[in-house]
Design brief:
Na+/H+ antiporter like fold; 72% helix
């Protein structure tokens, strides 16, 4: 990336920061804006910013972003509170996500007959995680019942870590026969990745929480450095797992979960990170997506790719989520609302950049194009529908009277941090 590209990108970030408050709650979401911004500046538009997705710096940015997103997403979710209050996202995660992967596998095998069963399953797993940031107006709109918007928030916070082991194993299985390694080596490698990673995450997440608690309670750690300590712990968890042969991303997710569950002091530094550094990394990722990945995907766009992208955002997502919520007492509008707002975003992009790019999957280019097109379509459709659909659904929910939708639950912070008290969208 040359100096002109850097100047344009940082200038765009500055401009967005100056008007971000006015855009909040509108159809112009941050991911959508930066995808369009990147596409306009990159190979698909004016060719002003040269962003080489294969550059080592891009790889490092993507790697750090995924580590921190996995760690902080898991750390902000209070598992005790989820178990007591939030049965909806538990159903969506434990029943809906596996059913979504199964449905996505069968549809991919039908739409792309050249795929092996492992490639079809890998595509379904790549597109299983959701990203509430693409429909931010939904999870921050107070007109939407707390129980419903928190279901979307919690699901998006945990499903990337749940989908990750499946993505890793399926990428290994899909590569068998197309790499110099024998099948037994791939299987052994995959098993070590998904077994050692969680062990490292559990140990470091717990020990790190205890150390940070002790430092805070004794006055050893200043408030400004508590956040640095947490970020360092996330990266250390990743590196330690990779050194012993485990998967660092799984370790980061498990470590974050254990850290958030174990720490006794209030994690204000965690929320501050999500509001600043986390947001910056997210915007840069979407910009890279628009500048480098989207133009290539558009070049390879075909009716079958577009068909699968549409089905992924509709039937493949909505039917399994509907099945997972049977028996909860929710009304039909809530089924449709929770099913539709499963945007695909950050996790799918990062999985493609870091996992698919390094594998020897036969139809890697098609998998890449389908994932990119689906994310781009999601950014557009979920971005422009979030605010109006939240308003319409909120008005419908207010007329339901006593119902399961308005059952009181405790709120869990969003990926973007704590919900402002003055947000009346």
């Amino acid at each position: 990336m040359d100096l002109l590209s850097l100047a344009i990108i940082t200038g765009g970030l500055l401009l967005y920061s100056l008007i971000s408050g006015r855009l909040q709650g509108t159809i112009l979401t941050a991911p959508l804006i930066f995808i369009v911004f990147g596409y306009t500046l990159g190979a698909g538009g004016l060719h002003l910013a040269a962003v080489d997705v294969g550059h080592s710096a891009i790889h490092v940015i993507a790697e750090i972003t995924l580590v921190l997103v996995l760690f902080t997403d898991a750390a902000r979710i209070d598992l005790n509170r989820v178990r007591k209050d939030h049965d909806l996202p538990v159903r969506m995660l434990l029943i809906g996500i596996p059913l979504t992967m199964v449905a996505g596998t069968f549809v991919a095998a039908w739409v792309f007959p050249a795929f092996s069963i492992w490639e079809a399953a890998l595509l379904a797993a790549l597109l299983a995680p959701t990203d509430a940031a693409l429909g931010q107006a939904v999870v921050s709109a107070k007109i939407v019942p707390v129980r419903i918007r928190q279901a979307i928030n919690i699901e998006s916070g945990l499903n990337d870590g749940i989908a990750l082991p499946a993505v890793l194993l399926l990428a290994a299985l899909a590569s068998i026969g197309h790499d110099t390694k024998p099948a037994s080596d791939w299987i052994q490698f995959g098993l070590l990745q998904v077994s050692l990673g969680p062990i490292v995450g559990i140990v470091i997440g717990y020990v790190g929480a205890r150390m940070l608690d002790a430092a805070i309670e004794r006055g050893f750690a200043s408030a400004s450095f508590q956040g640095i300590g947490m970020l360092s712990l996330a990266v250390f968890t990743f590196v330690a797992s990779e050194l012993v042969g485990g998967n660092g991303f799984i370790a980061a997710f498990v470590g974050g979960m254990v850290f958030g569950h174990s720490i006794r002091n209030e994690c204000t530094f965690l929320f501050e990170f999500m509001e600043t550094e986390g947001q910056l990394l997210m915007l840069i990722t979407f910009l890279i997506f628009g500048a480098a990945l989207l133009p290539e995907a558009i070049e390879h766009l075909s009716p079958t790719i577009f068909l699968y992208a549409v089905l992924s955002l509709t039937a493949i997502r909505m039917l399994p989520i509907g099945l997972s919520l049977l028996g909860t007492g929710l009304r039909m509008p809530s089924y449709l609302f929770l099913g539709w707002f499963g945007p695909r975003g950050l996790a799918s992009i990062l999985f493609v950049l870091l996992i698919l790019e390094e594998s020897e999957v036969p139809h890697r280019d098609v998998l890449l194009s389908v994932t990119v097109v689906t994310v781009a379509l999601s950014a557009l459709l979920h971005g422009i529908s979030a605010a109006p659909f939240a308003r319409i659904y909120g008005q419908m929910a207010s007329k339901m009277g006593e119902c399961e939708e308005i059952k009181p639950v405790k709120e869990i912070p969003l990926r973007e941090g704590l919900l402002p008290d003055n947000n009346d969208q």
